[in-house]
Specification:
The protein is mostly beta strands. It is built from one helix and seven strands. The strands form two sheets. Strands 1, 2, 5 and 6 form a four-stranded antiparallel sheet that branches. Strands 4-3-7 form a three-stranded antiparallel sheet, with no helix packed on it.
Length: about 130
């Protein structure tokens, strides 16, 4: 009888280690676990040429430093001029599919309005939520 109980305990221990990890509760990804490593912007297209004093579209390159897959990111884009005045500040969302440790690009997204006379050294992106 004692041998049977010991055998059952060993089997319980062995089978409990085989429980798949996906059955565990999914950990929420925090905004600080993602890093915007680079961003691209596109000049405004006007009268058949690009105007370098204006931007209308952006794309973010994001690194996923979490242990979870990231599918959607919500972030603030703030753009300032050479006098350090905020000339654009809006919240955007972008879909992407990033595995843990992976770096990838969002789809290109349009700014809500064209931004004129910006300073390319004063474009700030702050991630506020991750799904």
């Amino acid at each position: 009888m004692k041998t049977l109980i010991n055998l059952l305990i060993l089997l319980a221990i062995a089978f409990s280690s085989l429980v798949p990890t996906y059955s565990q509760k999914k950990k929420k990804v925090e905004p600080w676990e993602l890093e915007v490593v680079y961003y691209n912007w596109w000049y405004c297209w006007e009268n058949g040429y690009y105007n370098e004093n204006c931007i209308e579209k952006m794309q973010l390159i994001i690194e996923n430093n979490s242990n979870s897959v990231v599918r959607k990111v919500t972030f603030w884009v703030e753009i300032r001029n050479t006098d350090d005045q905020t000339i654009y500040k809006r919240k955007h969302s972008a879909n992407l599919n990033l595995a843990p440790g992976e770096t990838g690009a969002t789809e290109e997204f349009y700014l809500y309005n064209k931004v004129w006379w910006y300073d390319s050294e004063r474009i700030y992106v702050t991630i506020v939520s991750v799904n």
